Amino acid sequence: MAKVSTDKKAIDWLLSHAVENVYPSKENVRERLLKGERLTVYHGIDPTGPTLHLGHMITMRKLAELQRLGHKVILLIGDFTAMIGDPTDKGAARKQLTREEVLANCKLYKEQISHLISFEGENPAEFRFNSEWLAKMTFADVVELASHFTVQQMLERDMFDKRIKEEKPVYLHEFMYPLMQGYDSVALDVDGEIGGNDQTFNMLAGRTLMREVKAKEKFVITGTLLADSSGKKMGKSEGNMIAMTDTPEDMYGKVMSWTDGMIIPGFTLCTSLSDEEVQAIETAIATGENPMVFKRDLAKRIVAWLTDEAASEQAAAQFSSIHQKGEKPEEMPEWKMETSECSLVDALVVSGLCASKTDARRQIEQGGVKVDDAVVKDSAAVISKGSTIQKGKRHFVKLV
């Protein structure tokens, strides 16, 4: 078993860096960590998509910090709760997933998480599924669980209150979600939980259940979410998040596409720079230094963190080659045409450059598509074998 560290500097970093709130208080949790007691802390992820993204990895970094301090960490896959659907931040009920969809979605998760968290060695992380206990509950168990909460407590959730005011439905099964997530804490018998601040209500439901069912105080650490300049969180639902299945080049390009307002949050949440170093960058930008210099540095750091240094260097070099020198990438995807000609709209969709024909037409009409280096704005255009299509600044495909 790993020895527990009481390194004050590491504990202060854990409780302050990229942290929004600590319950019951930062002082309470710091005191527990300084005692040297080995604590059990978990983070839960509902597999609602086939890959993890940057937001997940920011939270995972906190779990990794606890693991390095010698504490027991658990990564919980919400294979049961994902079938219910977390209503957090949703203006309508989520689509309920089948068990087959859920299991297919989480197939890559452990491998992706292993980049930050160790599942081997003297202090291996546990990888669990909440169907282990939730799927076995009887209706009587659920009624008993529900007796710990009131309807008024559930209606305190912002999204429920908003939907009621907008005369939109709130489904009964959505009330069950925080009960299920809360019971995860009881089943795992944890000391603490870590998650994004959008999960505060659900995590505090677990704190309530731990206190009432086990007479145990569970602490909760909520992380700051990576959001754009408008305040909208970045994630797969919004389509603007770096996925772990992205190539290093795409990861780098996505960071470079962020607004300048994302630079400081990016350094704060996605790097290990100190507050003083981040403040120096903020001051430099405010006093007239080119933000692009810092954005390139941020992009390299994020790609190196999510992949490795070599991939980061290569991604930076390719971005510079394409965007600053106007060169095409040395290697690009190819799409085999079955006929000598086809519509540009069809080529964009079938080759994967655009998600739909509507998206393809919009990209063309807005001047975002080039064929053989020439901008094409006619959505009825026809192209031939041998052509190169470019969408935006960094997406290419060769027609063969």
What is the secondary structure topology, with strand pairs?
Elements: H1 8-16, E1 19-23, H2 26-34, E2 40-45, H3 54-68, E3 72-77, H4 81-84, H5 99-105, H6 109-113, E4 126-129, H7 131-134, H8 139-146, H9 151-155, H10 158-165, H11 172-188, E5 192-196, H12 200-213, E6 219-223, H13 248-256, H14 263-270, H15 275-286, H16 291-306, H17 309-323, E7 334-335, E8 341-343, H18 344-350, H19 357-365, E9 369-371, E10 374-375, E11 382-384, E12 388-391, E13 395-399
Parallel strand pairs: 2-3, 2-5, 3-4, 5-6, 7-13
Antiparallel strand pairs: 1-6, 8-11, 9-10, 9-12, 12-13
Textual characterization of the structure:
With 400 residues, this protein is α/β, with parallel strands linked by helices. The protein folds into 3 domains: 8-223, Rossmann fold, CATH 3.40.50.620; 248-323, Tyrosyl-Transfer RNA Synthetase; 334-399, Roll (Structural Genomics Hypothetical 15.5 Kd Protein In mrcA-pckA Intergenic Region, Chain A). Helix content is 45%, strand content 13%. The chain is built from 19 helices and 13 strands. It has a 6-stranded mixed β-sheet, with helices on both faces. Mean pLDDT is 87; it is low at 88-93.
Condensed summary:
This protein has 400 residues and is α/β, with parallel strands linked by helices.
Overall helicity: 40-55%
Number of helical runs? 19
The top-level CATH class of the largest domain is Alpha Beta
Give the CATH topology of the largest domain: Rossmann fold
Radius of gyration: 24 Å
Class from helix and strand fractions: alpha/beta
How would you characterize the largest beta sheet? 6 strands, mixed
- The named CATH superfamily of the largest domain: HUPs
